[in-house]
Amino acid sequence: MAGPPEALEASPLNSTAPRNPSGEEPSTTAGYPILAIVLGLLLLLLGPVFVGSLLHERESETISRASERLGAMGVLQAINQASRDVAMVVEPSVVHVSTEGYFERENGRSGVYGSSGSGWVYDAQGHVVTNAHVISSADKIEVQFSNGERRAATFIGSDVRSDIAVVRVDPGRIHPASRSSVMPAQGDLVFAFGSPFDFRFSMSSGIVSGLGRSAGLVGLDQENFIQVDAAVNPGNSGGPLCDIHGNVIGMNTAIATGRGSTVGEEGQFAGIALAIPMRMIELVVDQIISRGEVVKGFLGIQMSSLDTLALRPTSEAMRSVLRNFRGIGVAITAVPEGNPAAAAGVLPGDVLVSINGVPVPETDIVAAEIGFQSPGSTIDLEIWRWNPGLQEAERLTLPVTLAELDPSALYERQVEFLSQRGITELATFTPELASGLGMEWTPGVCVLRADPDSPIPAGSIITEVSRESVSSREDLYFRLQQAGIPPIFQRVPGSGSQVSLEVISPAGDRELKFLPI
Predict the structure, then answer these.
(1) Known catalytic residue at 406
(2) Which of 108, 111, 122, 350 has the fewest beta carbons under 10 Å from its own?
């Protein structure tokens, strides 16, 4: 007979679970900590493998998708092919220029030296353009083409104030460069060619960083450069700067060296390279080829940068400029009568803002813009002028017809130095002059008149000053100025200071003449 439920539940005979002596129920989670530890160890051991596998799978998918996009768009392939095409178009016109020179001193010592740079084929007649400083001391010039062929070159002429020179090789089997005189814009892609550190026929790329740069280079006084960030180093001098179509738009000339504020053709690249624009190159080169000398425009003003003027204003008109003018320009300090600027109505106290729309922030830019215009051409001067009566400024555009620059007017002290030594009349020795005198032509300066006791007689041709080549009167005067003639300070009598001139005598002999300073 069954008892009541309470009795059944209490009976030990009907209980199948052992009793805890304490009277508490046994825990069913006692094994969880051990399980957690085991799982943690498994994650430590297997987790990195799993995560690495997952990341690799995702990277593979990313690579695959990017590869598909590159193959579909073809943008980089197009850019890559365009760079190759520029190289294929330009490279055959680029040359490596090697020079060799000989020196001889009055004490009888002599020797040989060499230098190198770059250049490019200008036309089908074999004319090659390079920097004047690349070949200035050369007695022998050799050019090497990108196909390895080497040819001897002949010096034709130079304009040392702009650092442009022309040599010539035998024509035939050459590829003249395609040229463009259109000025680039800031941001345009450009390519520089040459032989940096003698790594011949190299190519670098960059953009136009700025225009109308004047760097204050030693040895140049006509500067209006294109600034680029393409890598240019020693050996690139004279090489072409090209646009995206393979047209030469300028010539590599100088670099910022990274040594303080030094700018020049030596040193290593520091992110700033300077190139001569094509429109200036063509004006100089075409004249050297056609007439043997460069004739430049002449405006007839004296000027000062605004920074220089701020330190020392020279007149009330200049003080008025400093008080009232705000902007970029060059102060005109004097306008001599009888010159083109005076005839056009330019006045002292005016500020020259632009020439033919080109801003002129520095006096060097003005000199370059005027010097690289042909005599007889008409230019537009944008002038700022203060009107004291109205107490306001006015802007004027004055057309000016340029005259021809006479180098003697720029180098009066050098002309006087030669005159004191009996050399009284000089002329650029052009092919036309040589023909008229019945002489064989060579680049140089002809002594038309000289005193009987002059160390350099009439009929002589001056070809070098201090081992630097000259091909015009302006070159000669400029080289003398570079050599420190006449000296700024009075020399001590009997100090033996002198300058050397290489001369072809009337008899046709090459001689070295030493003029005392």
Answers:
(1) no
(2) 108
Superfamily of domain 411-516: PDZ domain (2.30.42.10)
- Nearest 5°: the CA angle 505, 415, 343 is 130
Specify the CATH class of 297-404 in words.
mainly beta
Q: Which of 127, 137, 163, 454 is catalytic?
A: 163
**Domain 94-291 is in which class?**
mainly beta
Instruction: Give the active site residue among 237, 304, 471, 500.
Output: 237
- Are the CB atoms for 473 and 428 separated by under 8 Å? yes
Looking at the chain, the domain(s) classified CATH 2.30.42.10 span: 297-404, 411-516
Place of tokens 């009598």: 493
- Return the beta strands (E) in 181-311 as ranges: 189-194, 202-213, 225-228, 240-242, 248-256, 263-264, 273-277, 297-298, 302-305
The answer to whether 163 is a known catalytic residue is: yes
Tens-digit pLDDT string for the chain (517 aa): 444 444 333 334 444 444 444 445 555 555 667 777 766 676 666 666 666 677 778 888 888 888 787 777 677 788 888 899 999 999 999 999 999 887 766 566 777 778 899 999 999 999 999 999 999 888 899 999 999 999 999 999 999 888 999 999 999 899 999 999 888 999 999 999 999 988 999 999 999 998 877 765 544 555 678 999 988 888 899 999 999 999 999 999 887 665 444 445 455 666 788 999 998 899 999 999 998 888 889 999 999 888 888 877 777 788 888 888 988 999 999 999 989 999 999 999 899 999 998 888 888 888 888 888 889 999 999 999 988 878 888 999 999 999 998 989 889 999 999 999 999 999 999 999 999 988 999 999 999 999 999 999 999 999 999 888 999 999 999 999 988 887 755 555 555 578 889 999 998 889 888 888 7
- Locate CATH 2.40.10.120 in the chain: 94-291
Angstrom distance (rounded) from CA 362 to CA 214 = 7
Q: Does the annotation count 96 as an active-site position?
A: no
